[in-house]
Amino acid sequence: MTFPNAHPIATRWPASHPDRIQLYSFPTPNGVKASIALEEMGLPYEAHKVTLADADVKSDAFLALNPNNKIPAIIDPNGPDGEPVAMFESGAILIYLAEKTGRFIGKTATEKAKVIQWLMFQMGGVGPMFGQLGFFYKFAGSQIEDPRPQERYINEAKRLLNVVETALEGQDWIAGDYSIADIALGPWLGALEFYGAREVTGWDNHPRTVAYLERFLARPAVQRGRLIPSRD
Question: In what residue span(s) does the GST N-terminal domain sit (predicted)?
């Protein structure tokens, strides 16, 4: 049996096209980073739906690929050193795919450093803080009577939106040219609408950010990638 079907994950999600990149994901803000990148880069891939239920992400099959039990994860049967590559963590996957294709990561070392800087801003700031905002504003945390957790993440989301708004002055994309930093940031900015948190975070007070998200969502590859894998 050839890789990736030799990998334990294939016991639950076998590859029909083992010569392609295998994507194990679900259409969340983190999950669609990988599918959007694959669509933008035109890489052949096969998508497998891994739901957020424990039966999927905590299964032995998935944990064999990602011990941190989070989507997305990938297997590239055609790694850069002639060997298959298995990867988890959405930011790491974006860097790997960008370096594999030479696209969306800057043309010079300085540009690459700037792209990775803004990618890390999303990974360390926008993603975790917006995720906590969603938990305390829309989901189970909204039932907590103490107002401080909700206030903390609303205020932090406002601060991060101000950072984005300032960075976008005079440019269309967060690091200059369109890059993996935008592929990471765009889905999380869009999550504020899903959380019903645009008004409380002052979304409409950030016109450059509003226009930025509209540009991002208008890209055909983004429109395709946001729906992969299907929730059905």
Answer: 18-105
How far apart CA 105 and CA 41 sit, in angstroms, is 12
Specify the residue for token string 């299907």.
230
Q: 109-221 has which CATH code? A: 1.20.1050.10
Summarised one tens digit per residue, pLDDT across range 201-221 is 999 999 999 999 999 999 999
- For residue 26, the SS3 value is coil
The pTM is what? 0.96
Determine the Cα–Cα distance for residues 50 and 143; give it in Å rounded to an integer. 28
- Determine the Cα–Cα distance for residues 21 and 38; give it in Å rounded to an integer: 9
Which residue in this structure is represented by tokens 């930025």? 212
Which region, left, alpha or beta, applies to residue 208 given φ > 0 means left and ψ of -120 to 50 means alpha?
Answer: alpha
